[in-house]
Fold this sequence. Notes:
This protein is of the alpha/beta class. It has 13 helices and 8 strands. It has a 4-stranded parallel sheet, sandwiched between helices. The protein has a 4-stranded parallel sheet with strand order 6-5-7-8, sandwiched between helices.
Amino acid sequence: MRWRRLRFSNTAPAPLRALAPTLALALAGCAAGAASVPRVRPGRLLVVGAESQYANVLAQVGGRYVTARAIERNPNTDPHSYEASPAIAALIAKARLVVQNGLGYDAFMSRLEAASPARGRQVIVVQRLLHLPSSTPNPHLWYSPRTMPAVARAIAGALGTLEPAHAAYFRARAARFDASLRAWRAALLTFARRHSHAPVAVTEPVSNYLLEAAHARILTPFQFQADLMNGVDPPPQDVALEQELLARRRVAAFVYNRQVTDPLTRALLALARRSRVAVVAAYETMPPGYDYQAWMLAETRALERAVAAHISTERL
């Protein structure tokens, strides 16, 4: 299946949360982007995440020994029609460690790496790390609670190979990252205990892994979700079913891709509002002002507010 990145509307970033000092490095790497090859101070490795959420974890695990950059951070860019500039190619050529999603979501990365071979460069493909077949229907792996801990450990291992003298430092930071996810895990468990099998409707499978971990029950047919994700018009019967779920309030929440500008999605969002169904914004890429942990926790708390108190969260 060929994945595509939806077109997004530009939204004002949420205010910066209270973040740990190490996050400053993470956000600096992600916010700066990869428009040019950064100057890397002596003693640091240039590391690259295909998406900003992976660059964020790279920065958190690598700490003071890395300079992290993200390739895909522009919400108006389709990764499947991505055209690398000379600066991007130079960035990949100089990167010592690359993390990419796989499952066709960021296939441009493999082309960039092949075009800019570098001896000793480490590449982590999350799909392979998790031993997922290419037929896996949902590529949004970062919403699964088991993904980023595995990614952090793999990053620590790769960085330890590149810089053996600091291997213990990287392992410690990966362990710290894993521990920092406890609040998110606890929120998922709390939701599952209080609202197990809560019915929800979605537009796309952006946050499905999180919903499944929370034991929510997704009533939207997956084919409908896949059609929207891939830019295909869903069949009328699937559209009618989705409309009925909202109009008759058969779901406790409507989870939609906050960054999409598809006319059908906007119409469904308007229907949910008219029907007084609480809506929850799911972001396909990490919104500004967050680290990965805060982002996932915010999404889970928004789901809790929607189901428990009928409160909508249309922007993080």
